[in-house]
From TrEMBL:
Organism: Timema podura (Walking stick)
Residue stretches spanning the membrane: none
UniProt cross-references to InterPro entries, sorted A to Z: ATPase_NBD
Keyword Kinase among UniProt keywords: yes
Homology family: Belongs to the FGGY kinase family.
Keyword line: Kinase, Transferase
Protein name as catalogued: Glycerol kinase
SUPFAM superfamilies tied to this protein: Actin-like ATPase domain
Length: 82
């Protein structure tokens, strides 16, 4: 799987609740199975944090390049048999 990074410098938004995706999946699965734990019609928006990058695009690209090189160097560190 290829890892990519954002090409823009727009602000990023993330939910305050870190497990929001799994909660949504559980709610959808329960609803599909006929388990009505939550009223799906009265769900309110989730509070989110918003932030903007504080480094330049050039610095971001340099850091990302170094990170990819570090990840590649870590391949095959564990040579023990499973």
């Amino acid at each position: 799987m290829a890892v990519t990074h954002r090409e823009n410098t727009e602000s990023s938004v993330r939910p305050v609740m870190t497990e929001l995706t799994s909660l949504g999946a559980a709610m959808a699965a329960g609803s599909a199975a006929g388990i009505e734990v939550w009223n799906m019609d009265s769900i309110k928006p989730v509070p989110c944090d918003s932030f903007k990058p504080r480094i330049s695009e050039d610095e971001r690209d340099q850091r990302y390049s170094k990170w990819k090189m570090a990840v590649e160097r870590s391949f095959n560190w564990d040579n023990s048999k499973m």
